[in-house]
Amino acid sequence: MTRVAVIGTGVIGAMTAWRLALRGAEVLAFDAYGPGHDRGASAGESRIFRTAYKEGAGYVPLLQRAEALWRELERGADAHLLTMCGGLTIGAPDNTDVAAVRRCAEDAGLDHEVLDTAESRKRFPQHRIDDGEVMVLDPAAGVLRPEPAVQAALRSAEAAGARILSYHPVTDATETADGWRITSNDTTFDVDHVIFAPGPWARQLAALRNLPVQARLITAYWFAARDVAAHSPESLPIAIRRHAEAGFSCFPALDGIAIKIVPHHLGWTELDGPDDLPRTSATDHARAASAAAARLLPGVTPHPMRTGTFAEGFTPDDHALLGPLPGHHRATVMTGFSGHGFKLAPAFGEIGADLALTGGTSHDIATLDPNRFPL
Ligand SMILES: Cc1cc2nc3c(=O)[nH]c(=O)nc-3n(C[C@H](O)[C@H](O)[C@H](O)COP(=O)(O)OP(=O)(O)OC[C@H]3O[C@@H](n4cnc5c(N)ncnc54)[C@H](O)[C@@H]3O)c2cc1C
After folding, report:
1. Which architecture characterizes domain 83-142+214-314 according to CATH?
2. Is 343's C-beta closer than 6 angstroms to any atom of ligand 1?
3. Which of 16, 84, 165, 205 could form a disulfide with 349 if both were Cys (CB 3.0 to 4.6 A apart)?
């Protein structure tokens, strides 16, 4: 039986532990914190799932596989994690992201609708749009619940035999003649293969120190909806909003009170490391988010009632690093998901298990090759 250590049980490590355990590996899954914690990238109430992908049609097979695996996880863990409420990309027709979503849907033959300005205003008045702006509606989109998802994956991994070692920071991972030696809480564990899934903490592990993964701050804001029913997932799809004055992702009200936005137009501030994460947003940042809500979301009280700060690892090209760890044997790296890894996590977990157990995968992951950047 192959003994595999998974370092990090955010959504990526949790899904990988689940897929490995199902395939009979002996899994040791370490995390410095507890399942579903809010210090890294896998928390904050909601995540977007979408299939018409502005990042490229090459992701579509992986997204479709991920959707099937989300459903498998839900069934096995008796959890409701993914609500398919549809997804809107909103902006001028020639906006880069609006055009890219449309192109992806056309290239991959995905169902979609393009709503002109009048139709957009009629169907989704929750968004204020300017003359000439359009909405691209992706029916294969929805909202995921991040913390329950991580917990469901770890529960399922444990049920399949994995050891979940929460509150076990890995302080050393050293390659040996025939595997790796992992040190955590003053104990050493010898394994055949190691999966590094440390999210934004990547560069704090010696073996990953040279990888081009920058920890950055992403801030989310919740705004109270005046008509909650009109802003619930039954009425309001997830959205990617692109406008000359602001850009954000937008999530329907899941708590019966407030919608959430994650501003994109303000950039992602670099962090020295995720442990330097501020616990709330800077006043200027909050003011700009408030202005965006006042301008583009007519049905909310445009002052955030809640703020969440999270850390994520970004690569220079905003595509993850997923593959054998350069310069080492029997090691897989999965990090740098650059703000869009959650929806794909079960498929990435399957790939991590493939790589650890067989050394290859049938999924096309060429664009994620960790060797594409000079080290
Ligand atoms: C605010 C925000 C909004 C986002 N929105 C979306 C979205 O709508 N849709 C989407 O698809 N994606 C989205 N993303 C991106 C997605 O959430 C991330 O890509 C994904 O969660 C990354 O997961 P991860 O497991 O790599 O990292 P993390 O969740 O950060 O997990 C890494 C884990 O490793 C552990 N760890 C690190 N070092 C060690 C060590 N030495 N020893 C033990 N444990 C260690 C950490 O404690 C942590 O639990 C968003 C991200 C953020 C932050």
Report:
1. 2-Layer Sandwich (3.30)
2. yes
3. 16
